[in-house]
Amino acid sequence: MNSVFKEHQQLFHFQSDQNFDFECMEVALCFQNCDWKIEHLQDLKVDLNATKSLLNDKNLDEWGKHTTFTDISSFIINEMKRRLKRQPELLTRAWLKFYEILSEFPALTVADNEFRAVYLCEAPGAFVTATNHFLKSRDSSVKFVWTANTLNPYHEESDVFDAAIVEDRFIRHQNAYEHWYFGDDNTGNILHKSFLNALRCKVGNECDLVTADGGINCVNSPDKQELLMYPLITAEIFIALNCLKVGGCLVVKFFTLFEPQTISLVFLLFNVFRELFAFKPLTSKQGNSENPHLVHKLSNLYNEIIDSQFSFYKLRTTISGKTKGDNFI
Ligand SMILES: C[S@@+](CC[C@H](N)C(=O)[O-])C[C@H]1O[C@@H](n2cnc3c(N)ncnc32)[C@H](O)[C@@H]1O
């Protein structure tokens, strides 16, 4: 990728100092009642929402055309379709984003003979097909073992969510169907309490990679997107921590990072992963709030965190505002 494009990627790198006893105590402090805010982030949120609200009277279709026209990466899909001899399944913007992430972070796909990956909230499935393409174009001898989850488009409960993806070609595909997992209640809803254990029974806890690309429709309350997404991202993270092997990686999509709840989640990741990167791919539309995909390498300390029995269903977050919390922010 040339330097013009590089300038449009956003990448931040954090490294945990691995002082576990101290960290663990502080992480525990994260999950108390949330009675704090970071004022300058709240100010930024107000500014951002005010700017976004300037679009309220714009026609959405026209605005979409405008952002596509001004987006530096929008030509890439057509270029890929033209250049690739073998067309990948589901060559979408999500496919490009994930291919870009895999290319930027080769550690994500390091594996000996078998590469075990779990994709949470994954329909229509482009992260899976991007990984497959990436692995096959590098070392075809690695066996790609994958499981994907999403809201079950064929379950009646999914109708009440405004989140189920209707594009089901890759779910129904004869070579793919058996890889999709909808939990023991068949809804696919990762917010259901039984999902975590059911998935862990299916895939074990030795996965190399977990991705979490959940999204729900926040068109009617864009100013609340971060808080609306919080339960889903929390569930994704706790499920990932239960399935990853020591040294495994997580790619999780965040949106904005203004609220104490979300900041506390990032703080938790900062404590259980050796390295943490906040990365906005160039191929993610620059104008959307889909912000950092945080990419991590799991530290070998994470089992102790899991053993300390955080329950995400009871999760209430706050950073204490002292010591480590202050440094982190
Ligand atoms: C942005 S799409 C994922 C795109 C996908 N990574 C790809 O590359 O094609 C977001 C997904 O989150 C799923 N989702 C939303 N809420 C969910 C929930 N509670 N449980 C499981 N999946 C959920 C939606 O059904 C949708 O498939």
UniProtKB/TrEMBL annotation:
<dbReference type="GO" id="GO:0032259">
    <property type="term" value="P:methylation"/>
</dbReference>
<feature type="active site" description="Proton acceptor">
    <location>
        <position position="253"/>
    </location>
</feature>
<dbReference type="GO" id="GO:0005737">
    <property type="term" value="C:cytoplasm"/>
</dbReference>
<feature type="domain" description="Adrift-type SAM-dependent 2'-O-MTase">
    <location>
        <begin position="89"/>
        <end position="301"/>
    </location>
</feature>
<dbReference type="InterPro" id="IPR029063">
    <property type="entry name" value="SAM-dependent_MTases_sf"/>
</dbReference>
<dbReference type="GO" id="GO:0120550">
    <property type="term" value="F:methyltransferase cap2 activity"/>
</dbReference>
<dbReference type="Pfam" id="PF01728">
    <property type="entry name" value="FtsJ"/>
</dbReference>
<dbReference type="GO" id="GO:0005634">
    <property type="term" value="C:nucleus"/>
</dbReference>
<dbReference type="InterPro" id="IPR025807">
    <property type="entry name" value="Adrift-typ_MeTrfase"/>
</dbReference>
<feature type="binding site">
    <location>
        <position position="213"/>
    </location>
    <ligand>
        <name>S-adenosyl-L-methionine</name>
    </ligand>
</feature>
<protein>
    <recommendedName>
        <fullName>Cap-specific mRNA (nucleoside-2'-O-)-methyltransferase 2</fullName>
        <ecNumber>2.1.1.296</ecNumber>
    </recommendedName>
</protein>
<keyword id="KW-0808">Transferase</keyword>
<keyword id="KW-0949">S-adenosyl-L-methionine</keyword>
<dbReference type="InterPro" id="IPR050851">
    <property type="entry name" value="mRNA_Cap_2O-Ribose_MeTrfase"/>
</dbReference>
<dbReference type="GO" id="GO:0004483">
    <property type="term" value="F:methyltransferase cap1 activity"/>
</dbReference>
<keyword id="KW-0489">Methyltransferase</keyword>
<feature type="binding site">
    <location>
        <position position="125"/>
    </location>
    <ligand>
        <name>S-adenosyl-L-methionine</name>
    </ligand>
</feature>
<dbReference type="InterPro" id="IPR002877">
    <property type="entry name" value="RNA_MeTrfase_FtsJ_dom"/>
</dbReference>
<dbReference type="GO" id="GO:0006370">
    <property type="term" value="P:7-methylguanosine mRNA capping"/>
</dbReference>
